[in-house]
Amino acid sequence: MQTSTDTAVERRVFHLNGLELSVTLAGEGRPLLLLHGFPELAFSWRKVMPKLAAAGYHVIAPDQRGYGRTTGWSADYDGDLAAFRLPNLVRDALGLVAAFGYTHVDAVIGHDFGSSVAAWCALIRPDVFRTVVMMSAPFSGPPSLPFNTANEPAKPATDDPVHRELAALPRPRKHYQWYYSTRPANDDMHRAPQGVHDFLRAYYHHKSADWKDNTPYPLHSWSAGELAKLPTYYVMDLAKDMAATVAEEMPSREAIAANTWLPDRELAYYSAEYQRTGFQGGLQWYRCGTSGAFTAELQTWSGRSIDQPSAFISGKQDWGTYQRPGVFEAMQTKACTKMIGCHLVDGAGHWVQQEQPDEVSRLLLQFLARAAQ
Questions:
Q1: N or C: which end of the chain has fewer CB within 10 A?
Q2: What is d(CA 179, CA 239) in angstroms, rounded to the nearest whole number?
Q3: What is the mean pLDDT of residues 257-261?
């Protein structure tokens, strides 16, 4: 991972938990673990890693299971999803910490789906993950166990009616996470008519602060009428795939040439990797969630909260903060009991550490200093 924004960055491969885990490193000192989201890579931390390293940290950023140069995972749609469930992703992170000879890290920092992994790391092993920063995807806590059912059995789980309601709207819609769980989703993006590079350009643009219609606000409920207010990268037109959805928002050549947070030479790193691997590895994570197959396991931690110092950082222009109604508020009032920072960074959409790396680095270092007091 070498670009003009990098200093003292190297890549190493570790054999753990069935993987050959590709890890990007910077600096020396107290350890930090950085976990990327979808569709990203360790490369998404390229602008903050040197700043954290310069402040005296050993920064560790893997290509997570299903992504990039990490191997040992299967992209078979019909394969076993269990390897991609959240506790096993926590096991990957735990093994990486141990591989370096650390008993703990000062912070686990996750973005997008990596934010969920970071939150579960903190919840399951607070002794190892001493603090946590969640970025762009708030955490509402573990799912609840059926309660007070001794005399009245719990009602069986049913399909969420919101998907039928979305499809029945005058403008029929579908939720992107359930689309990502379908068999065609990988081919739709990997074999996008515009090519992987232009697909990713439009996707990153559509979810960034550069797309001027990203003006998020809280939604009132998990209902079709409310969810339909989300941009099409979250609640898609029913008949369109993701490649067609974002193609409608492809920036102009002039806008691409003027882009400083993701110039074409850096986008080319992502597009080359995803052209090589496809997207299915990351899509397996979504399938674990939408299938409901692993909810019972996650209920093992029902009622637990994140009690070590925590923080949340997102872009002010990021709909991800509000895409699940009530979660942003539940994170601050219930799921995290010692949240010492909650920041919405102006001038950033979903890719906050890429769009506004200086401010994100400042907030991370401020959090680490406060948590150490």
A1: C
A2: 11
A3: 98
